[in-house]
Amino acid sequence: MHTRVLRNTPRNLATLAHALRRGQLVAVPSETVYGLACLATDAAACEQVFAAKGRPRTDPLIVHVHSMAQARTLAVWNDTAQRLAKRFWPGPLTLVLPKTELVPDMATADLPSVAIRMPAHPVFRALLKTLNAPLAAPSANPFGYISPTTSEHVKKGLGGRIPYILEGGDCERGLESTILDARTPERISLLRAGAITLENIAKCLGHAPLRTTTPPPQEKDVAAVAPGMLTKHYSPRTAIELHETIPAEIPPTDAALYFQRRGEAEGKGSPNQFYLTEQGALEHAARNLFARLHALDDGTWTRIHVEMAPCDTGLGLAINDRLRRAASRG
Ligand code: TXA
Ligand code: MG
Fold it and tell me: Does the beta carbon of 115 lie inside 6 Å of ligand 1?
């Protein structure tokens, strides 16, 4: 199959909306990572998404909406969930809520709940508006591999397996959305750390969300309830080793990915030294993380040594979560 990369023009959006209505797949840009989208209400199209990614059927998809009105047709809302949506949408927060009959079981891996978010990326929003229907979309990478933050990453991973990629430039946040289980208002819990920090969620809720790795008792399928909780995920093919401080002496065939750019002298003449951020800002590190891992994995390095973010607070939590999973052999 030939994969076409289309720019954001009204004509192309109409073409893509038409393709989606016919059950085809389209990779779309979002502010977090690129997603592999299909019509959320089309079970057969959802099945194709799992097939194209090589994703286990037990790992449910996120449904993306253009409006709150659309979100109301897909899930059963409570006041706390509405407050969170009001504060963070459009944006990188995903809410898990009881689903309605509009959502096929294929999209949610047979769970009675659905994960919903309203993306902020203008190109994604334009497509959702043209289509006037919700889109199910997991990240647009082969299952388990590094998430895509450019259309080139999508092409590298899924080219030849999907008909269309909608071009939307580099993803601004660079990390997936934060996922909250919002089904029980007094027990809002974090399912995946992401682009919205726990601190900001706590401010909105008036208290910190629960952080539990134990699935809610009513759900049998642990793997499916624990999103992105598979230990090994986001992984390059090249071996990754995590460090608080990368040892000074590493072989020249290994790459060192520092959190922050080091002093001039240290960097000079060391073609195997890279960094996530120039000044140390977590937002910059988050934005660059997957792109750096893609670039290093495309090289011929024997091993990639990565320096962790200095703290597990703010975006440091999500960055270090992704790094731990990328390095996991399990
Ligand atoms: O930023 C993002 O969230 C990106 C963009 C494209 O929106 N999407 C993304 O999707 O990261 P994906 O498939 O890579 O991760 C979605 C996670 C899955 O690991 C899945 O387990 C979880 O969301 N999820 C989906 N539906 C769920 C549900 N009903 N209950 C619990 N977790 C759910
Ligand atoms: Mg993913």
Answer: yes
